[in-house]
Fold this protein.
Amino acid sequence: MSDDTPTMRAADNDREAVVERLTRAQAEGRLDLAEFDHRTQLAWAAQTYAELAALVADLPTDGAAAQRSPAPAYVPPPYQPAYLPRPAAPGVPGKAGNVLVRTWLAVSMINFVVWGLVCVTEFEWVYPWWIWVAGPWGALVLAARMTRFGQPR
């Protein structure tokens, strides 16, 4: 198809060449299926070189399409969770839980040592009253740890 003969009648092999070019353009994603079908019908119905040239005027020539490098492949971004998961182990205390346990342990030890000193200085067995300090408070500390008190939510 030369530009100096736009009114010259086209042959079947000219139409086939245009349809092959349209097929390559559709395979490259330059034409959707409906537009490809419409242009193919117009190509087979075309009578002149000008009608055929109008069908491929907005498509790159075969050499220009081959010279271009292909588009880079899509690489998805790495997975990042939308939130940080909670710790799975319920027995791991948070900062407030550690303070609670350490305070209970310190007070219980002080009471136990005082009770032990009283027993030694009196030379007789004294009722273990320190259990009433350590026991209920220890039960509360244990319950707080089991309910994840002081841990981030």
Q: What stands out?
A: DSSP finds six helices and no strands in the chain.
